[in-house]
Amino acid sequence: MSTRLRWSDLPETVRGRIEHRLGGEVAWTVPCSGGFSPSTAEVVGADNGRRLFVKAVRAEDNPASVTMNRREAATLARIPSAAPVPAYVDAFEDGDWFVLVTEVGAGATPSLPWDVQDLEHVLEALDVLRSEATPCPVPGLGTASESLAHDFHGFARVDADPPAGLDPWLAEHLPQLVEAERRAIAAVDGETLCHLDLRSDNLLIAPGGGVSVIDWAHACRGAAWLDALLLLGTVDDRDGALGVSGRIDELMDHHGVPRSVATDVLTAFLGFFVDGARRPDPPQVPGLAAHRARYAGWLVPLLRLRRYEHAHHR
């Protein structure tokens, strides 16, 4: 995880505009954990009870973070209010700073390993999001196939240059995995607003089960099932207690899409993690390779299970 900026790092003019939105001086701040950006990620509050979430960064901290925060602001400004997403409040430039301000999502990131109820609450919230965000309400967004064009060819890169210590099962099946990711990229498009980066630290769950989907920097137009599938691909279910593979089948059945499509997309998702895990961390994002290796370790047994089931149910 990266080292984040804090409220105290922001210039007085930025703090003043945010305090105007709060209706009072900032009396306390709470930093948010998780993520790979140096941007501030803090809840700031005034004595009047008003709270806001603030994300601010400069190009000198990480140019990519500025670009992503701009994209997120443009998306949040158009997401319907009924969607399970903290409402957009403000976005502005101040000198070298780009600042995004939203309402505060209720709750906290889910505890890991995942709890069954938390996972079900999130999947229900994604159904609401899909309903509210189809057709995509944000003009100008790229398609999922465009957004994933590089990431979803990880196994092609692995096949061309296999890393040392590659899982033997992956090494044995590389030609089939490369073909599967080619099929996957052709299957992910649609007319739904997709988050495209759903994982536990981009979700908040309130005690009553309310869910907020946060961090919208990678939004695109894609298939209605894509976000839920990619989220399930990040869930550690190596013991099968959460029934992730069955939930994936139910998701695809609900949308009238062959279950094998999910397996292809998860193959491409795994290829992204396997390829990325062997690359050095960017200076601004320490721990990224280890994060990707951990997700790959969770996905391999799920993919092996699904490919075995397909082979024996034809």
UniProtKB/TrEMBL annotation:
GO terms for molecular function: transferase activity. Its EC number is 2.7.1.-. Residues 31-236 form the Aminoglycoside phosphotransferase domain. It comes from the Bacteria. Signal peptide: none annotated. It comes from Brachybacterium hainanense. Keywords: Transferase. InterPro entries: Aminoglycoside_PTrfase, Kinase-like_dom_sf. This is Aminoglycoside phosphotransferase family protein.
